[in-house]
Design a protein that fits this description.
Helix content is 24%, strand content 20%. By secondary structure, the chain is of the alpha+beta class. A hairpin with a 4-residue loop joins strand 4 and strand 5. 1% of the residues are buried.
């Protein structure tokens, strides 16, 4: 044992309760660091992969897969119905007409600068803007899932799946296909 471990074990806990709390905090930091090292070791054992494509997937029981095994297109066959999740296209800061499909104000009858404005955002009472009020803001860039897409063709040699339907996100984006 090291001298530090001897010192910790010989310290009477009842004399200084703050010492015990400090030691628990210190040990929890070591434990979380060790968990990070173990996860990194699993990743290194898996072999060379792109870190952008590394995901943790939940499976039903041990289906012959180990940590770090690649899942390819051979898991799907023509006619399967799948769910596809991905990040939708980010559109930046948008107004209420585009973001929430507001109608905007009238173009005539004395209205000058209110064509694409939201209008009133609240009543006299409760004298504040309620949480969740639809306003202008960032649009897109959210995780979206499209369900009930049909697998039309699977090319195992080229690692390509042809799906019937819309896929969320930009061209070349990373998507998750679940069967």
């Amino acid at each position: 044992m090291s001298a530090e471990a001897d010192r910790i074990l010989s310290q009477p806990a009842l004399e200084d309760p703050t010492f015990v709390v400090d030691q628990i905090k210190e040990w929890s930091e070591y434990i979380s660091a060790a968990q990070g090292v173990l996860q990194a070791a699993d990743l290194l054992d898996a072999g060379p992969t792109s870190l952008a494509a590394v995901r943790e997937l939940r499976t039903e029981g041990p289906a012959g897969k180990k940590t770090g095994d690649a899942i390819d297109v051979s898991a799907f066959v023509q006619g399967d119905v799948v769910k596809v999740s991905g990040l939708s296209k980010a559109k930046g800061f948008q107004g209420v007409v585009k973001r929430h499909r507001f109608a905007g104000g009238p173009a005539s009858h004395g209205q000058k600068h209110s064509l694409r404005e939201p209008g009133s955002i609240g009543a006299t009472w409760p004298q504040r803007v309620l949480k969740g009020t639809r306003m202008a803001g960032r649009m897109g860039g959210d995780r979206r899932t499209v369900r009930n897409l049909t697998v039309m063709q699977v090319d195992k040699d080229a690692h390509v799946i042809a799906l019937l339907g819309a896929i969320p996100g930009r061209r070349g984006g990373l998507v998750e296909i679940r069967g």
